[in-house]
Structure formats: structure tokens, C-alpha cells
Design a protein that fits this description.
By secondary structure, the protein is mostly helical.
Amino acid sequence: MSKKAAILGGIVVVGVVIGVVVLSGGKQPPAPSAPPPLPSLPVEPVRPADQLPPVRLARPEQPSKPQGSDSYKDEASLMAKLRDLGTSDLELSLKLAREGNDRYPDSPDAVERTWFVCKSLTGLGRSEEARAEALKMVEKYPGTSFTNDVQRHVLFAPQFEPPGR
């Protein structure tokens, strides 16, 4: 770098510093104040495990999941619950889908419930049962999108054991 460029750069830096000082009125920015001290809390001594009071777990007064067929008075509420469950509780999905098919065997939603049966069984690692249900589904509901999905994922896809089995 040439000597002229260095001098010119220095002048620009000095000018910027002077401009900042002039704009701030020559005042220094306030120093940050220290945070207030935390209140001191009484500290209890650590007790050995054999001196700790027993832990009691509260039991729910009502089960968190519906247990009987009285839980869903109509098909619409049963289907809403099935769709809401998705794959979060495969055992309950399977139970509700089978219950719905028993109660409403000829309804337009029966094919979707049968799809839930097949998918739940597959997710639970019960592939032989899932395959048997899928074959019945193909026979009873040919050409539907639910049947096509079951064919693709249950009948044609290779079966893998779920983790932990």
C-alpha cells in the first residue's frame, strides 16, 4: 500500500471517530449496572435416601383412554377419534376400528376402518394377521385408495420385524 493511501485511510478513520464524538455530545455511554443480588433461599441439608419420605403417585380417577363401546355413541365420533389417534396408540386404534366394523359393517367408512386394522396390526408387528385382513380387504373393497395403500404396504412390501422384537 502506498504512503498516500495509508495517510488518506488514517484521516478517514480520525474523521469517523470525531463525527461519533460530536454526535454523541461528548458524553460517555452509561456503564451497565450490575444486576440486583439474588435473594438468598434457605438451603435444606441433603438427607440420605433411607430418611426420605415415601413417594406416592397419584392415580387418575378416570382412565385417560376410552375403554368401552359406550365411549363413542355414533360412528362419526368413533371415526374422528380413530383419525385423531393415527399411529400414536396402535392397540386402541385396532380396538376402535374393529369395534366400528362390528357396529357399522356396511357403512361407507368401513373401508377406512379396515385400513386402520391392517395398519395397526402391521405397526404392532402382527404381520400374519395384517396380511389376512389385507386379503379380505382386497376382496371386499377392491379399487379404493385405502385398499391400494394396504396392498402396497402390507401385501407387496417386504415385512420387517419392528424394533425391539
